[in-house]
Give the backbone structure.
Amino acid sequence: MRPLLRALFGFVLRIFFRRIEVSDAARVPPVGPVIFVLNHPNGLIDPAFLLCLAPRRVSFLAKAPLFRMPVVGFFCRALDAIPVHRRQDTGFDGAQNRETFEAARRVLAHGGAIAIFPEGASHSEPKLRPLKTGAARIALGAAAALSAAPPVRIVPAGLYYRAKRTFRSAALLYFGEPFAVAPVPLASGEEPPHEPVRELTGQIERALADVTLQAEQAEAHALVERAQRIVAAQDEAPALPPSLAEEFAVRRRLLAGYHAVRAQWPERFAALATRIDRYEAALTAAGLDPRQLAPRSYTVERIARYVGKAILFLGVLLPAALVGVVLHYPAYRAVGFVATGIAKGAEDALASVKVLAAMLLFPITWGAVAAAIWRWQGLAAALLALALLPLTGYAALGFFERLDRVVGGARALGLFVFRRRAFLRLLAERKAIREDILALGREIGAAG
């Protein structure tokens, strides 16, 4: 079941996210006991990423209530997840967690890998929550039992979502530098002492901070996201977009600059933030993205080539896309309605519910249409339809994504041709804001 579920989840993730990247997977030790520690911003999507994209087989520690859920519980058991019992769970018994720790240590004793979310629960806060001590206790217990074997290594992994609740966004799994766990002498069945647990938990927290984006307020992330789009924009559209790892690195630097500038030069910070907000408002009013302000892209030859490709692409996909829209739109709307109702405003749960609802409602749609065709045209036609129906949905997805880019490019071209002064004013403002940001960065560097 495990390979089948990995393939299924991998396919679902590739549909839900337009871009998925893995960075520095070579840092993961290929053999020996490994504990992955991850941040937890996006519910059940987070373990699915590591399950599908980690270079090793992984067993997860998952909260016990998940095992009692009808569909999720089946997935947890099929993927060899290990239940963790929390104080807030109904029927909590602390003695059960001794079995949890022993099960995790047995996996490590056989040279396997486990994964833990040391924050304890998924959340949407702008920084890491205080870490639980479970990861450190398991690591120290396993290290004591395996003192003569390869050391237990902890690998921090950061999950970065450009817009975690949004369909067809982008996601990055970023592996940090692994570090070995120094063993502490323990008698059989003895729990690690408090001080080594506290020190190792602090080390895990620092390692996770190095692979995640940290801010005191959500507004900081929003402002840095807008600044990052301005800094990354160029006068000519690049042949390939920057990698998500590069985008993540730029955001980390901008967040560091955000905190430094706000503390040292609050007036300059407020003026720059206001300027960025006004610029974004002007772009929104024009229906543009900063990346579309690329004047060197609007040569006659490039425009003709782009229009030709767009017409060809849209013309080829249009028939299948129309079929896909008619058949899949009701289920698509139902997924959004169900997810909004079940998540009840919890952003960290919304994407998980969307994925689970889609995994149920879209196959039901395909089955219902295939059944109708069976009655109308027979079994052979129904089987052919069952094979083609998902492809029509994918064609509709590709069609409207390309159409959105075509419409955005047409708006930018129209502004460039018919309202050249407004286009150049926006372009000049973007360059001025970018230079202000870079100048502040240089001043921060000079000040140490």
